[in-house]
């Protein structure tokens, strides 16, 4: 797997990885993308190379679909619990076991790469490559979204400038601008200053690109014309008479679709073990559906016997949205759900401080297991088998691992230790075996709600059946919005809950499995093109900031193109 | 050349093109990029495909350089005079004549594509393809520049937010933000609003991406490390003590270079006649050097016996900057200069109104020829042969063409009729023959000024020897800036004149060849990374706006991916 085998061995000998992620990725043997495409079963006219190690896919003929595995997680620590790493490692393990498997992941956002962390493509021996490219511009999908989003914004302001034929109220324009940069100074801005020829002065702001409704739309579209129709439906603002104004009325859906004609095609890369990987789309997991594109998952399902995919944050957020928003469009439920847990996240949920998570602590672990139990219950209610993957860290003790396994068995599941970070696919062979067996089930998928359920019913079911709370409360603003949404017939769309990832409740400090809580919904947001309503609890940051010492200060490149600091 | 030959024939029969540019481009037979690369003499490890019809080039071994031909033009009408079209057609003609020739052009900016016009890749039968891709995201170079530029901006505002360790004066930050969108509402904005956690309030704005100093830098860099060094030199603002602050002090040149690691590689595409074409970089021709990258031109020179390249606007702007800014870095002067003239632009310069340019008018033409004479003189002073290409329109009469030819012969040149729009390379065979012959000269290149000439000397020479004016005047602000620049030793860099393209003078209404004028320099701008000083005359718009009915309202796509409205 490595150009220089000794690099790998030095790690393996100690059971741990001695190299940084970017060192592993840059020293890995990478297959030409043609070979990966061939392994995936693509004909030469079904992919277009982007560089020697990336490609975009357009299937030319329909195939029968294989089985689907969703990887989700318990409530995480702020450092994350290695969901992508397990997803990659599990797919590698399945292939090692002779099962034709592909992995389908989200694309990383470049803003955070330059901010807090270097990369988001798995870790250790379970990574997708080319790591640097995927973390930077990749095949340009996010840039195309940024361009299309901002072109629409410019067209809206131009419409104001050119006599405002649509009678848009400048104070009620809801379409902001976006950049794939962590730039807090652009959150709240005044635009259109500088006189008559430079626009109409008004308040506005920038979100990060992954928060764009176009991102949600692109990743929920079934084809180019579905994309165009959804773009037409986007509500960009309201008239002086409070009537909604759509992109269709502005007459530019065609141009925006043209700008996204390549971004809609799924991207093919590979894992360190040359498992074909589709990486496509990256919608936020709080204000959007938080999972890779419908088209990429559909493509993987058609190409492989097993597709391993993941959803953002914990099962309460990404898992629920995967089941209730993506599945109805994809038209296929997961055959198995894998819930990633770590000893340290369970201890964190059991009340242990972040500084002491590496110390053995069966008491905190025991206390934290109620978090696992509730996530298990939430996923089990959809009717399909749920397995637990314990993503093992070197500091975990065997007793701690055994305790989780015992607990899972008592809660209608089975827990499997995985060591994919240090061992790659080799570290998840047992889980792979269990996934294969569990996938062979005849159980029916049980959706949480029906499409024509009332908005209130959907909300109540999410809060009670997924979060384990008592109910919800709409703030006056949200109540008023709901009246408007009902008047326009928008209330029958699925709900996207924008909630903290650290708690089942809307209070990030309520770890573990809080009881008897109420979810407070401050405000609603219409995403008419994406086809859902966002219910905002608390403040959701849609434009991150940079830390005191940004990752950009560590990243560098030499004359040979070797990159450092990208971890 | 066409998939459906009847499409071509219907045009050829009438001597004119019956199809729109995008119809021609989408119906053209396109070679797989591997075949184009092979024709260009690239080994398989010297290019990376981007899709099936685009590639990025990294030469692995040095070759001897061929000859260089610069295509420039007389003062244009607002519609443009077909300089890119002639450049493409001439290269096709050279190849038809059996001379191994490549073309090196700038990349179009997407903002204007969605605004006033659909495309900028030549026209009629003399185009580069894939036309839609080149006009949209292409290989992502502009997006990489936008990202790197805005990441730097975010890092600057973050430095202010995090205690301002560099003591930057928020009112003296000169690094703005950019988008490749025509968005007048972003010209003047207030950022950092919304309280303590969302930045420091200050005035700022957005330019269009092609106006970014990073664009000028990327296209003047000789390699990745030169790029990094230039980025380090960028002055982003001044301290409270008026000391300049550079990117080096911010410590992020490495990260920005990483973001541009692929953008620096020249892009390979083809003309309709499969001539290998390098399209790379697109700096403004007023506030920057206005020509494609040094690396792309160098690459073409090494691959072909003849490289045909162009420079933006007229010879007074793009031509002068090519000679005085690009050539010293490239290290090779053009062997021949081709000056594109049209009958209608000459009539326009002779006082005819825009509405009547298609009517025969020998008197206006005669009057306008003084514009041609002055451009001829300006280019001839560099010592190399200058030929005139008459880009013929169907409304031009034979008498008009003959008059230009007679005039050129009287002014030390020769004029050749070209019909590349309707005939492709076939329409420029005589010009191709003349270029070949003229290139066989031993004349020395005579630079306009020396690197260590004083700033004032450089300015004076540009105004008198190129524009034919009497001299220049520095406004008080510019005088004051020059004192500062001298104190920092910045005054020895070349001058980039930001001037109207419609006149030799700084008054767009003074057509033809005005006499005895003074160039008024309002303000200077330091581009320390790019390595030049911009001298601003009048107002230069660095962020265009959209028209009343933008091109975006006409552009559309169907379920088969066929694009309309992109002309």
From TrEMBL, chains A, B:
Q: Which GO terms describe its molecular function?
A: ATP binding; formate-tetrahydrofolate ligase activity
> Is Phosphoprotein found in the keyword set?
no
Q: Give the keywords, sorted.
A: ATP-binding, Ligase, Nucleotide-binding, One-carbon metabolism
Question: Which pathway does the database say it acts in?
Answer: One-carbon metabolism; tetrahydrofolate interconversion
Per the database entry, which stretches of residues form a coiled coil?
none
Q: Which biological process terms from the Gene Ontology are attached to this UniProt entry?
A: tetrahydrofolate interconversion
Keyword flag Glycosyltransferase: no
EC number(s) on file: 6.3.4.3
- What reaction does this enzyme carry out catalytically? (6S)-5,6,7,8-tetrahydrofolate + formate + ATP = (6R)-10-formyltetrahydrofolate + ADP + phosphate
Q: Output the InterPro entries linked to this UniProt entry.
A: Formate_THF_ligase (IPR000559), Formate_THF_ligase_CS (IPR020628), P-loop_NTPase (IPR027417)
Instruction: Provide the binding site for ATP.
Output: 77-84
The superkingdom listed in its UniProt entry is Bacteria
Looking up PROSITE patterns in the UniProt record yields: FTHFS_2
CDD domains membership:
FTHFS
Task: Supply the NCBIfam families for this chain.
Answer: PRK13505.1
The record's family statement is:
Belongs to the formate--tetrahydrofolate ligase family.
Tell me what this protein is called.
Formate--tetrahydrofolate ligase
Q: Which organism is it from?
A: Weissella kandleri
Taxonomic lineage is: Bacteria, Bacillati, Bacillota, Bacilli, Lactobacillales
Q: Gene that codes for this?
A: fhs
């Amino acid at each position: 797997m490595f150009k220089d085998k000794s690099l790998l061995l030095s790690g393996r000998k100690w059971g741990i990885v001695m190299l940084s992620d970017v060192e592993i990725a840059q020293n890995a043997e990478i297959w030409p993308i043609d070979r990966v495409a061939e392994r995936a079963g693509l004909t030469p006219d079904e992919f277009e190379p982007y560089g020697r190690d990336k490609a975009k896919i357009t299937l030319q003929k329909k195939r029968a679909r294989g089985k689907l595995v969703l990887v989700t997680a318990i409530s995480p620590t702020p450092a994350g619990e290695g969901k992508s790493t397990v997803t990659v490692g599990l797919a590698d393990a399945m292939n090692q076991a002779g099962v034709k498997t592909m992995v389908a992941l989200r694309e990383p956002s470049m803003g955070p790469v330059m901010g807090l962390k270097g990369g988001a493509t798995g870790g250790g021996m379970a990574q997708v490559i080319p790591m640097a490219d995927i973390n930077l511009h990749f095949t340009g999908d996010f840039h195309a979204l940024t361009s299309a989003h901002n072109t629409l914004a410019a067209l809206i302001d131009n419409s104001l400038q050119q006599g405002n034929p649509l009678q848009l109220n400048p104070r009620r324009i809801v379409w902001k601008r976006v950049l794939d940069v962590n730039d807090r100074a652009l959150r709240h801005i005044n635009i259109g200053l500088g006189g008559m020829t430079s626009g109409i002065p008004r308040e506005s702001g920038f979100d990060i690109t992954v928060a764009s409704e176009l991102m949600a739309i692109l990743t929920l579209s079934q084809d180019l014309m579905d994309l165009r129709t959804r773009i037409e439906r986007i509500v960009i603002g309201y008239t002086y008479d409070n009537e909604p104004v759509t992109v269709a009325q502005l007459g530019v859906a065609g141009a925006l679709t043209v700008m996204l004609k390549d971004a809609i095609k799924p991207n093919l890369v590979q894992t360190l073990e040359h498992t074909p990987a589709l990486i496509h789309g990256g919608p936020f997991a709080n204000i959007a559906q938080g999972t890779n594109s419908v088209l990429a998952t559909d493509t993987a399902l058609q190409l492989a016997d097993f597709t391993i995919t993941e959803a953002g944050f914990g099962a309460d957020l990404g898992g629920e949205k995967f089941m209730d928003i993506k599945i109805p469009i994809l038209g296929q439920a997961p055959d198995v759900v894998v819930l990633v847990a770590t000893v340290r996240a369970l201890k964190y949920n059991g009340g242990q401080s972040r500084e002491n998570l590496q110390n053995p602590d069966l008491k905190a672990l025991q206390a934290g297991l109620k978090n696992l139990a509730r996530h298990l219950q939430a996923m089990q209610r959809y009717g399909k088998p749920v397995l637990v993957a314990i993503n093992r860290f070197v500091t975990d003790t065997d007793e701690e691992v055994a305790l989780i396994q015992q607990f899972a068995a008592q809660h209608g599941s089975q827990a499997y230790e995985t060591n994919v970070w240090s061992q790659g696919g080799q570290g998840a062979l047992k889980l792979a075996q269990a996934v294969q067996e569990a996938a062979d089930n005849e159980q029916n998928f049980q959706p949480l709600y029906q499409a024509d359920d009332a908005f209130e019913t959907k909300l109540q079911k999410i809060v009670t059946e997924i979060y384990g709370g008592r109910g919800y409360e709409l703030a006056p603003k949200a109540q008023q919005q709901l009246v408007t949404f009902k008047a326009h017939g928008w209330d029958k769309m699925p709900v996207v809950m924008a909630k903290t990832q650290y708690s089942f409740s809307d209070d990030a400090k309520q770890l573990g499995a809080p009881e008897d809580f109420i979810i407070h919904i401050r405000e609603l947001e219409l995403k008419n093109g994406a086809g859902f309503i966002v219910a905002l609890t608390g403040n959701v940051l849609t434009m991150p900031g940079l830390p005191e010492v940004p990752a950009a200060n560590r990243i560098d490149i030499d004359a040979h193109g070797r990159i450092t600091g990208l971890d």
